# Entry
Amino acid sequence: MYRFGLAVSAVLLLAACNTEEPTPTPEPTAVADVEATDEPEPTDEPTPTPVPPTNTPEPTATSAPTETPSPTPEPGPDYDVSFETADCEFSVPGGRDVECGYLTVPENREDVANGRTIRLHVAIFASDSGNPAPDPIIYLEGGPGGDALETVPLIFEDRFSPFLANHTFIMFDQRGTGYSEPSLACPEVTELTFETLDDDLTVEEGQALQLEALTECRERLVADGVDLTAYNSAENAADVADLRWALGYAEWNVYGISYGTRLAQTIVRDYPQGVRSVILDSAYPLAANLQTETAFNADRAFSVFFAGCAADDACAEAYPDLEQVFSDLVDQLNEEPITIQVFNLTDGQQYDALVNGDVMVSLLFQALYSAEITPIMPKLIYDVRDGRTTDLSTILSSFLAQQEFFSQGMQLSVQCNEEISFGVPGEVLPAPNFPYLDPVFEAGIVTGQFGFAICDMWQAGQADPVENEPVTSDIPTLILAGEYDPITPPSWGEDVGERFSNSYYFEFPGIGHGASVSGDCPLGITQDFLEAPTEQPNAVCIAGMAAPDFLVAGDGTTEAIELEPYSNEAFGISGEKPAGWEEVAPGTFARGATALDQTVIIQQAAPPGLGIEGLLGVLTSQLGLDETPGQSGEYEDVNGRTWSLYSSEFQGFPINMGFYEDDAGLFIVIMISEGDETETLYDAVFVPAMDAITRN
# Structure
């Protein structure tokens, strides 16, 4: 989940690098005043944890490449395949040994003679072990259309670094995604989203605009020579097989989440050689029908969510009749939508966004992907009902940011070719308990009847019937499912397990999509399986798991704040920060009490020449503040220094700023907090930070 404090920190870092007087950027362009919302489109991918792109450094050159094994003697493909090392296009996590490069393969293996090739960006993360296992892990991103490598700076350490304990870990951007060439991203759709955020469109009006934007995207890609019929799971699987051959690995472990599990099954079917083991996390069977089953599967997850709160004494007492309250809220907002402000992490501007009942349904659906966000949702539902929208603004801003890590064109090529092409117009599986789900998914690009019109325009071809048939295998396979998963239900994992004769299936309570990266227990089971795929993993930890720990208002997040010393060599400063608060960026400490917690304390220093007014101007323009923060007072700290105090507000979050300037430069202390906690945190965190900060 994004933190506004990271955006502020990034602006400060950029400003501190320039001691000249900054030039304010233009004010944001006004959003067109049309009607109705183009509700967020649910996708088949886990919810990432976005942070501002401005905080992602430029591409980083890698260290000396790690040697890969010599090619195995097995015969290669009957077409040209090559792997060449290159700089990583993403910022390499600190301390990691990563070899990057590009795999070059034919775009369409059924028409190799046309000579058209594509390049896939690949990253090989060296194991932490001095004697790692000879079989690496190859990770398959979800989506379809998810960018794997662009998110590395944001999520790798939390999600995937544990796998480096004994294995090399390989990630790559699948064809059409991320840094691979060509990209099938559709910026036309992203632009449409922000242009219509505050528009109250009918379903038909919204679909017409989507069709127009996607048509523009298709025409651009085709004009560039892209063969849209070549971007599908069959070609994707061949890419993975060619990558193993090009890197020279005798065998490896195939690990997929979400759509990555569908791709993994395709690999097992078409290229089983060299696959030591398979991990299917949040399984997506080839024979499943995402177009017709999504509302039905979401209905199951909504039932689990409402029952979970009702069974939790604290949640049930704080948020009684949650199921009915949410249903009434959906009806109310569809009758009378509200408008809130959201923050675009890409351009740093605020936008008005219309929220109706369908948006709330989509929001809860997306939230159930995440074990971090699910516990917050009962409180958020009641907050929105009662007119408190701060957390709603935060979560919608984060979900909007996901578009930056996603290729809409790749998703359409896959889904149109091998899913919707087997569909029957008019065939639907309605939600049995919550009818408000049906119109939301019926209007979706790949989850409803609208998909037929989209695919008729996109022209991605017709897959072989085998792409709609179950896969069987005897390769050792671990299958993981989350109880709260709204898109790939546990029953899908069980279905796949019935056809994988050497498989182990586990369902985890309280977890949504992407179980293996959502908790210590599923991670431990996954690691046990990798060490001995033919043996039953030790799963006793599941018995100790429980339902989500639902957040209840007034849980006391400001209690027992203790301060501890810290030092930052980059800024050449020392000071105090709250114990337990994580440094999420240089000099930026986040409390992280919940996935939506925006509370941070920023402590930085700037060289002489920037000045308070210059820094305030940068913050105002880059963050799209309505006006330059005004001075609210002064503070004389325990060292006799007089600080200039300023205050502002952004998306409902109070911002307290303190600046002390002398001949050596500028001290900066900024605190962002929740409104009802500001007074407590001001005395417990903000003032002590000004007292303690000093140069090393």
Q: What stands out?
A: The longest strand covers residues 653-662. Residues 13-68 have pLDDT under 50 and may be disordered.
